Amino acid sequence: MNDSVDYQEMRQKRDEAVQERNKVIALLARLFPAGISDKRIPDGNGNVRGCVLIDLPTGQISWHFADEDAAYFQGLPSYLGAYDGHSQEEKYKRLEQWTRMLDLGEAHTTWRAYSSRKSIAD
Asked: Residue 39 in contact with residue 33, Cβ under 8 Å?
């Protein structure tokens, strides 16, 4: 196999993984209070991208997305809050904390309050 075929294959696998990730993020953004940042935000690679911000009971989480992936987040309102400065490590800690709360049954009343909340866009 030559280098260009390897590169194309790697890029295709990466693109597929990004699409799968975006589907999960889009679901989270519809289960919790969420929105799209009005500001285009630089990602870690120097690209300016859109950003979806989601408020979990354990704190804010966010992900950048490319323009070609904006359709996953169509219909979400503008995010009313501000980015809280969380790191990638903190984002995943917040997800893990929420998962543990669900596993331990500690999230029942909080989850009910979040899941019954209507979107600002409704």
From this structure: no
In a domain, 120, yes or no: no
| Structural domain includes residue 71 | yes
Note down the domain range covering 80.
24-115
- Both tokens of residue 76? 């979400």
Residue 11 located in a structural domain: no
Residue 32 to residue 77: CA distance in whole angstroms:
12
State how far the Cα of 99 lies from the Cα of 91, in Å rounded to an integer.
Answer: 13
pTM, two decimal places: 0.79
Please state, in angstroms and rounded to a whole number, the distance separating the CA atoms of residues 23 and 25: 6
What token pair was written down for 86?
């969380």
| Local structure of residue 78 (DSSP, 8 states) | B
* Residue 47 pLDDT: 74
